[in-house]
Design goal:
This protein is of the alpha/beta class. It is about 25% helix and about 20% strand. The protein contains 9 helices and 10 strands.
Length: about 270
């Protein structure tokens, strides 16, 4: 089995190598220096749909190919993505597999790592700033805070089978709940928590396009989380549930993206 590159090792310049790279929440300024180096050296970049264009422009000499799986739309299956990485590396190319946030936080990076290892393709992991903590932080919400929350749980919200068992196992108010990819399921998630004993007035927040110029923040409660939000469903969104959300109001004035109330609008006015 091929081992991952030792930390600090520079991939061979001649190619034949794969970097699984975290793109962070979206702002190029939040990329790691190693991620920038890998993008600038890449021959091929296979990127997720949430990666914005300003980051892709750093890979000026590479062919950039979208392998988006957003909202059920997939150009390639997971197996096909892995096969493409393997084939390109065997042709001697330096491949960057670019993933939003961190490759190992709900990004299927582990599956791709194992596929590369089984194929004998040399690879490395370049961690990224995970949106699970970056989005709340950029909205002035600490996921942990002394006397308020000593733990946080991150869950995928794209479908009930992905979150229901874990959400049901969390004692009411015992931890901050961070939901990725869950905007469409937010009403069901809120209802499940309330059924499980969470207070209806538990603070909640929705952050969309975190770290980008169009970042928006909605704050409310579990009772209002399921209402129709004036947000673009194509924008990446993070849900934060817990008493730490109430701390955002104290920090809003010092943030580059102030917390704002997004007015409720009927779905019919949004063209959805």
């Amino acid at each position: 089995m091929t081992k991952a590159t030792r930390v600090g090792t520079v991939p061979p310049r001649c190619g034949g190598f794969v970097s699984l790279v975290g793109a962070g929440p979206g702002d190029p300024d939040l990329l790691t220096w190693r991620a920038i180096q890998r993008l600038q050296a890449a021959d091929l970049v296979l990127y997720d749909g949430l990666v914005p264009r300003p980051i892709l422009r750093l890979a000026a000499s590479a062919a950039c190919v979208s392998v988006s799986k957003r909202a059920g739309r997939s150009t390639l299956s997971q197996a096909e993505v892995t096969d493409r990485m393997i084939a390109a590396a065997r042709r001697g190319q330096f491949v960057v597999r670019l993933k939003s946030g961190d490759p190992f936080v709900l990004g299927r990076g582990g599956e791709e790592m194992l596929g590369l290892a089984r194929a004998g393709v040399p690879f490395e992991i370049v961690p990224g700033v995970t949106t699970a903590t970056a989005a709340p932080a950029l909205a002035g919400i600490p996921v942990t805070h002394r006397g308020v929350a000593s733990a946080f749980v991150v869950v995928s919200g794209h479908a009930a089978e992905a979150y229901e068992r874990l959400v049901s196992s969390i004692a009411p108010g015992s931890a901050t709940l961070v939901v990725l990819m869950g905007l469409a399921e937010r009403a069901r998630i809120a209802a499940r928590l309330v059924t499980g004993g969470w207070r209806t007035d538990t603070p909640a927040a929705v952050i969309t396009s975190a770290s980008q110029p169009n970042q928006r923040v909605w704050t409310g409660t579990l009772a209002t989380l399921g209402r129709d939000l004036d947000v673009d469903r194509e924008d990446p969104g993070v849900i934060v549930i817990g008493d730490v959300v109430a701390l955002a109001a104290d920090s809003a004035l010092s943030l580059p993206f102030p917390v704002q109330e997004i007015p409720w609008q009927p779905m019919t006015t949004l063209g959805l």
